[in-house]
Each structure stands twice: as C-alpha cells, then as structure tokens.
Amino acid sequence: MTTVGIDAIEIRTGKLQLDLAETFAPAQDEDPGKYTKGLGLHVSSFPDVYEDIVTMAANAAHRLMERKGLTPDDIGRIDVATESAFDNSKPVSTYVAGCLEQVYDDDFHHANKGERKFACIAGTQSLDDAYNWIRAGRNRGRKALVIATDTALYARDDPGEATQGAGAVAMIVDENPDFVELSTDQGFGSADETDFLKPNQQFPSVDGKRSMKVYLARMREAMEDLERAGVDLHPDDFALIPFHTPFPGMVRKAAALGYRHVCRDTDVELTLAEEIGRQPRREEFKTQEQFFDAIEEYTDALTETERYEDWYADTIEPTLEIAREVGNWYTGSVHVARVAGLKHALEHDRDLTGAQLLVASYGSGAQAEIHAETVADGWKAEIEALNVDDQLDRRYDISFAEYERIHDVHNHDTDDYADVEELTTPSEEFVFDGWGRMGERKYRYVR
Ligand code: CAA
C-alpha cells in the first residue's frame, strides 16, 4: 500500500520575543523559577506589528513551496487550523492563498480551501483530512498544504499570560512522504468540557487548573481507545513521543501518567516493582480517594527511578526544546514538538529512519488523539533544511513596556495599529497592510 504522510514541514516564529525570567517575572513580581522550572518556559514568541496568523502562515508556506520546488498547480487543498481567526465566514486559507498568489504566476483557484476549528487539536485534524483525501484517491496526484497558525494571546493579567506564543507550522501532505508516514491506527478521548473557550471573544476564558486535569483525562481515554484498536503501547517501542505542549510542565505530568498506564501488567512494571512496588489497583482500596492518593505517591516514586528518568530524557525531553523558547503555539504546538525531537536526534547522531513516533495531540473543549507515525527515509534532509535556530536567534527582545504596546496592537478591540512603530524591519516576506473597504485585512509582499 502506498504510504501517506508529511512530506515536508516549515516553522515560522513571530519575530519578537519576551524573556519570561528576565522581563516578565520581575514585572509580575514573581519568582523567575515559576516560569523556567515550574512551567518549563524561558521565552515566548510574539508577532511584530505587521505580523499576524496570515503572514506567519503564508511565510511558512512560501518557504516550504520554494524549498520543494512547488507552485500553486501542485496543491489541491489548503487547510488552515487556527483558534485565532478574525473572521467568522471567510477562512484564513483564502487570505493565505491570496498572499501566495502575489509571488507565483499560477493560482490556487482549483484548490479546495477550508478552516478547521477544535482548539489546539485542529492542526492534527487537518492532517487527518488531508490524509483521508489522498487515501480516498480524490487528490488527482496533487498535494495538500496544511497550516497550523496561531497568536496564542491571553487577556492581560490572566494566569495564562505566562504561556503565550505566536507562530505557524506549514506541512505538505503527500504520497510516499519524505518526513513521516502516518498510520491508520488512532485513539480518541473526547468530551463536552468547559475548561478553555472563546465565546465570540478574542482572548480565552480559562479555568487553568481544570484545563490541566481535562488534558490528562482525555489523554488517558485516547490511550485506552488506541489499545482497543489493537495497538500495543509498550513505552520502549517509541523513539519519541511529541505531545501537545502548552508548556513543558504539562507534558511532564502527561508523560508520567502515560508511562504508568502503559507499563501496567508489563515486564517494566515487574522490574520496577523491586524498587518501588507494584502499581496500586483500584480493588485494593476502600475509597476512590485512597486509591488516587496511592496512585499519586506511586507516580512520584516512578518519576524518580533511573529507568523512568532515562526514558524521559530520550523520548520526551528532546521534544520540548523549541517549546521552551517559543511558548504555546496552540494548533502548531504538537507539530513543533515533533520537529524539536527529530532535530535533537539529528544533532546527536541518532538515526531514527524507520523508528516509531507516538504523537499525542490535544485541544481544549476537549479532545485528545494519539496515533503512531514512522520516520521516513528523507527526515534528515528535511530537518537540515529548516532555519529554526536562525529565526529564534534573530528575534527582537522586547522590554516590558514594548510588550504592553504589542499586546494592545494585537488586541482586536483596540485600533492602535497606526500609532505603534514596528520593532523589526520586514524583508522578503508577507506583511499586514491595513484594512480594505469591507473590513477585510490586506497583505503585501515586501521585497
Ligand atoms: N520555582 C519552581 N516552581 C515553581 C515556582 C518557583 N519559584 N513557583 C511556582 N512553581 C510551579 C508550581 O508549583 C506549578 O507546578 P505544579 O503544577 O507542578 O505544582 C507551576 O510552577 C505553575 O505555577 P502555578 O500553578 O502557581 O501557576 P498559575 O496558577 O499562575 O498558572 C496555569 C499556571 C494554570 C498553567 C496558567 O498558566 C494557565 O491558565 N495557562 C493557560 C491554560 C493552559 O495552558 N492549560 C494547559 C492544559 S489545556 C491545553 O493544553 C490547551 C491549550 O493549549 C491552552
């Protein structure tokens, strides 16, 4: 059977950065350790005045198409996933296509365009849509362009302000992919939850602590569903496990839960039992509360074992390296985690060709999805072609006063754009260029 998956990937960060320990923590009168150690975040990316979800998406897609030698005629589908859309009718993919048509001779008039919404999981759902379209044989040899783009901003003084970020991930989905092959096995955990939502408002209403519990509960359901699909989730079978990463501290919790779950009744549990005992079983406790206390105690002991620490260092830690430097990119976050893990592998001479990845996506509201992927033959060349480090190094480091202005610029309820000077100079990229007569946003390519 022909394989289908991600052929190529590009990352585009917002061009500003807010240092959480040096700049944000003192202004909030907080200990920097809350950000760097507790949440696991050092820096958040922000969009400059002339950047937004469209420019970041179009700039990522443009570099990707140039690198792969593609023109609009090669693309049969453009799916954009976002939870930062500014229009309830016209999809972001039309704006992105409009941008790209400024720099190509042909157009996207025959591409099917859409926009996917389900909080942060929509990027993975868009990959699914593209996969299904190709598998169904409806692509006529053409490829899908899938883009996850967000400005993950919270209202000022919301606890979520510590976990902001801005960036886009563009992916080409195709037959016989060079980067990763997607599998047909998936597990879902989905429930009607009100932990994080934006009812006709730009900034989210968040119950932060509850959102963390819901993340873990849906992940557990998704694991159980994947096991029901017949997939054996032995922890040592996966080279990397990229998770949706709102902040690395969340992944620390999810990884411990996942490891404990999949080790139950395996050789790993037996070996660990000599050191920390067997995992608690519900039937051994009179009340649910006693059981939960015992599970928590076991999990704490588990995460301090050498076996767990080695597994975490190899399988999880590498996937967090970019997130620590950019914050939460919502729909793009899990796809950044995949890139970070593979980039780390390349830099440490770890050959992952043919290796299995377990990709754990999540969106508030809420749904988790877990699936396996196989690393394809061309992964090294794809990672080598990225310029992530260069983009991260070139970001302009904003002061707290600049942060306050930039946050206002990107607040849809204020019209401060005209009053604020850009902090970087655009070059060879798409930029926001003001509003048109019907309230549409306009863009131009700066040479
Ligand atoms: N040194 C070391 N650690 C410290 C510390 C210090 N000086 N000060 C605090 N910490 C630790 C805390 O103990 C805590 O760790 P644990 O959870 O392991 O105990 C961590 O730092 C964070 O501190 P707080 O709990 O005090 O932080 P907070 O209450 O101000 O906010 C938050 C944390 C709830 C995550 C908040 O940032 C938030 O609401 N974020 C947005 C929602 C979110 O990201 N939820 C994640 C799941 S939902 C999802 O994944 C979808 C999505 O993308 C939004």
Description:
This protein is an alpha+beta fold and 447 residues long. It has one domain (4-446): 3-Layer(aba) Sandwich (Peroxisomal Thiolase, Chain A, domain 1), CATH 3.40.47. Helix content is 38%, strand content 22%. The protein has helices at residues 20-28, 32-39, 53-67, 92-101, 122-135, 208-228, 248-263, 267-276, 288-303, 306-315, 323-326, 333-347, 379-384, 388-393, 400-409, and strands at residues 4-13, 16-19, 43-46, 75-81, 112-116, 143-152, 165-175, 180-190, 196-197, 205-206, 356-363, 367-375, 396-397, 429-435, 441-446. The strands form four sheets. An eight-stranded mixed beta sheet has the order 5-4-6-7-1-8-12-11, with helices on both faces. It has a three-stranded mixed beta sheet with strand order 3-2-13. The chain has a two-stranded antiparallel ribbon with strand order 9-10. Helix 1 crosses helix 2 (32-39) and helix 3 packs across helix 4 (92-101). The protein starts with a strand and ends with a strand. The model has no long low-confidence stretch (mean pLDDT 97). Bound molecules: acetoacetyl-coenzyme A (CAA). Residues 31, 33-34, 37-39, 120, 159-160, 162-163, 196, 206, 208-209, 211-212, 215, 244, 246, 249-250, 328, 330, 362, 364 line the site of acetoacetyl-coenzyme A.
Helical amount: 25-40%
Mean pLDDT: 97
- The CA-CA distance between the termini, in Å, is 44 Å
Strand order of the largest sheet: 5-4-6-7-1-8-12-11
Please give the number of β-strands.
15
Shape: globular
> Helix/strand-derived class?
alpha+beta
Round the Cα radius of gyration to an integer and report it.
Answer: 22 Å
- How do the SSEs run, as a string of H and E? EEHHEHEHEHEEEEEHHHHHHHEEHHEHEE
Small-molecule binders = acetoacetyl-coenzyme A
CATH class wording: Alpha Beta
Main β sheet profile: 8 strands, mixed
- Strand portion: 15-25%
**CATH superfamily label:** Thiolase/Chalcone synthase
- Any idea what the CATH architecture is? 3-Layer(aba) Sandwich
